[in-house]
Automatic annotation (TrEMBL):
Catalyzed reactions: 7-phospho-2-dehydro-3-deoxy-D-arabino-heptonate = 3-dehydroquinate + phosphate
Alphabetical list of CDD domains matching this protein: DHQS (cd08195)
Keywords: Amino-acid biosynthesis, Aromatic amino acid biosynthesis, Lyase, Metal-binding, NAD
Name the UniProt record assigns to this protein: 3-dehydroquinate synthase, chloroplastic
Gene: DHQS2
Organism: Fragilariopsis cylindrus CCMP1102
C-alpha cells in the first residue's frame, strides 16, 4: 500500500517574478492539459512543465497542479514567535487587484479605540446589522461591539441558533427578514460576529440582500480566523450537500482579536487547528514544522503562538485568493481532505461532527490515498498522523458511524469540485508542502482507502 511509484519527467524551466507566479500557474491549469509544478522561494520562481505522465488515469482532460512549498527561511521558523504587545497588531492584505482589496487586522486584546477606528473606517453607510449566535451573545461580545458602534451608527442586532445544523435556508431567511423589517438600505453593512457558520450565512445574506450589500467579518473561532472569514466564500448547506448554495462575496475587512479564543471550547479550538495543519501540508512546510514543535502552546492558548499561527494562515490564504478568487484552479487546493470530510458531515448528519474534525479524518484519508498511489513517502503519512494526534483530532470514524462506501461515493459525486462528471481530489504529492488538484488517479486506490476507513463502522455491515 505504501510502495513508492517512480516517475520520470523531462522538465523545461522558465522564470517568472514571485508576484506573478500563482496567477500564471492558476491560468495554466485552466488553459492546458499539461502538468505544471511551480516552486516559490526566496530566489524567484521557476515554473516547470511536462506533457508526459506515468500515473494511472481515468481521463486525460484534467491537468495536475503541483503546488510547492512556501517556506521562506524554513529552518528558522520551527520555534519562531512574534513580539506581541497589548496594543500592537498586524495587517495582512487580501489583494484582489480591482479595488476590492481589504485588510485582515490581527491582534491580541484590541483597545476599544482601535476597534472603533477599524470598523467605522470600513462602514460607509449609517445602518449596521450585527448578527451572532446564542452561544456568543451571552459572552459579552455582542454588547461590546454594539456599544462601540452606537455613537457612530444606527445599530441593529440579531441572535441566531448556534451550530452547523442551523446553517440552512430557513435560518438565512431570518437574517433577510430582520433586514427588511428594519428597512435597511443598500448602504447598510452586515457584521458577522462568530465562527464559520455565522460568517458563511451572514456573507451569503449580504450577497443577496438588495443584490449585494457590504459586510464585515469578526471571527471568534480558530476555524473562522484562519480560514472561513478570509476569501469571500459564503453559503448554506442543503440536505443533499454541504455549502452547495452560496456566492463569492468579499468582506470590507476582517477583524481578528485572538483574545476571543479564551472563551472557545477545547473541542472547537482543536477543530480549527485542522485548517492550520492543512496549510502546512499543501504549501507551507515551515508552518508544518513549526506546528510539530509548538502544538502544545496552541492547545494551551498561548497568545504569542496563537497569533503567529493565525497570521501565517491568513498570509497563506490571502496569497492563494489573490491568485484564484473564484476557485478555478489553485484555490481548490485549500480543500485538502474536504471532499472526504464533507461526505462525512453530510452522511452523518449536519452537526454531529465539527467541520475541522471531519476535515481531519478526510485529510487522513487523502494522505493514506496519496501514499497508496505512491505519491508520498510513508514518513510523511506518519508525521501527518502524529500532528493530528497532537491536536487531539480524530483520525478514524467511530464504530457507530453510518458511513459506508456507497454513502461516501454518493456524496463525493455531488462535490463542487466535480467537473464534467469527473471527480477531482486534492492529494499530496512529493515532499512536504506539495499537493496536486487532479482527476487523474487510480480509482481503485480511492475505493481501497474508503473501505479501509469504514471497515469497522456499523454502516459498513448494514
Amino acid at each position: 500500500m505504501m510502495q513508492r511509484k517512480q516517475q520520470q519527467q523531462r522538465l523545461r524551466p522558465c522564470r517568472f517574478t514571485p508576484a506573478d507566479a500563482l496567477v500564471i500557474a492558476s491560468c495554466l491549469l485552466l488553459l492546458t492539459s499539461t502538468s505544471y509544478a511551480f516552486h516559490v522561494g526566496g530566489t524567484g520562481v521557476i515554473l516547470h512543465s511536462s506533457s508526459s505522465r506515468s500515473t494511472k488515469s481515468t481521463s486525460s482532460s484534467v491537468s495536475l497542479l503541483e503546488m510547492a512549498t512556501v517556506d521562506e527561511a524554513a529552518a528558522d521558523q520551527k520555534n519562531q514567535v512574534l513580539d506581541v504587545n497589548d496594543d500592537s497588531y498586524d495587517v495582512v492584505k487580501v489583494d484582489l487587484n480591482d479595488g476590492r482589496d481589504y485588510p485582515i487586522y490581527i491582534g491580541t486584546s484590541f483597545t476599544n479605540e482601535q476597534l472603533s477606528d477599524m470598523l467605522t473606517s470600513h462602514i460607509d453607510g449609517k445602518q449596521v446589522l450585527i448578527i451572532t449566535n446564542d452561544r456568543i451573545a451571552p459572552l459579552g461580545y455582542l454588547d461590546k461591539y454594539e456599544k462601540l458602534l452606537a455613537p457612530h451608527k444606527d445599530v441593529h442586532t440579531l441572535v441566531l441558533p448556534d451550530g452547523e445544523a442551523n446553517k440552512n435556508l430557513e435560518i438565512l431567511q431570518l437574517i433577510l427578514d430582520k433586514a427588511l423589517e428594519e428597512k435597511l438600505d443598500r448602504k447598510c453593512t452586515f457584521i458577522a460576529l462568530g465562527g464559520g457558520v455565522i460568517g458563511d450565512m451572514v456573507g451569503f445574506a449580504a450577497a443577496v440582500y438588495q443584490r449585494g450589500v457590504n459586510f464585515v467579518q469578526i471571527p471568534t473561532t480558530v476555524m473562522a480566523m484562519t480560514d472561513s472569514s478570509v476569501g469571500g466564500k459564503t453559503g448554506v448547506n442543503h440536505p443533499l450537500g454541504k455549502n452547495m448554495i452560496g456566492a463569492f462575496h468579499q468582506p470590507q475587512c476582517v477583524v481578528i482579536d485572538t483574545d476571543s479564543l479564551k472563551t472557545l471550547p477545547d473541542r472547537e479550538l482543536q477543530s480549527g487547528i485542522a485548517e492550520v495543519i492543512k496549510y502546512g501540508l499543501i504549501r507551507d512546510s515551515a508552518l508544518f514544522e513549526w506546528l510539530e514543535n509548538n502544538m502544545d502552546k496552541l492547545l494551551e492558548r498561548d497568545p504569542v503562538a496563537t497569533r503567529y499561527a493565525v497570521k501565517r494562515s491568513c498570509e497563506n490564504k490571502a496569497e492563494v485568493v489573490k491568485a484564484d478568487e473564484k476557485e478555478a484552479g489553485v484555490r481548490a487546493t485549500l480543500n485538502l481532505g474536504h471532499t472526504f470530510g464533507h461526505a462525512i458531515e453530510s452522511g452523518s448528519g449536519y452537526g454531529k461532527w465539527l467541520h475541522g474534525e471531519a476535515v481531519a479524518i478526510g485529510t487522513a484519508m487523502a494522505t493514506t490515498m496519496s501514499a497508496e498511489l505512491g505519491w508520498i513517502d510513508s514518513d510523511l503519512v506518519e508525521r501527518t498522523y502524529r500532528l493530528f494526534e497532537k491536536a487531539n483530532l480524530p483520525l478514524e470514524l467511530p464504530l457507530d458511524s453510518p458511513m459506508n462506501r456507497e454513502i461516501f461515493l454518493n456524496y463525493m459525486a455531488a462535490d463542487k469540485k466535480v467537473a464534467n462528471g469527473q471527480l477531482r481530489l486534492i492529494l499530496l504529492k512529493g515532499p512536504l508542502g506539495n499537493c496536486v488538484f487532479t482527476g487523474e488517479f487510480d480509482r481503485e486506490a480511492m475505493v481501497n482507502t474508503i473501505d479501509e476507513f469504514v471497515a469497522e463502522c456499523d454502516g459498513h455491515s448494514s
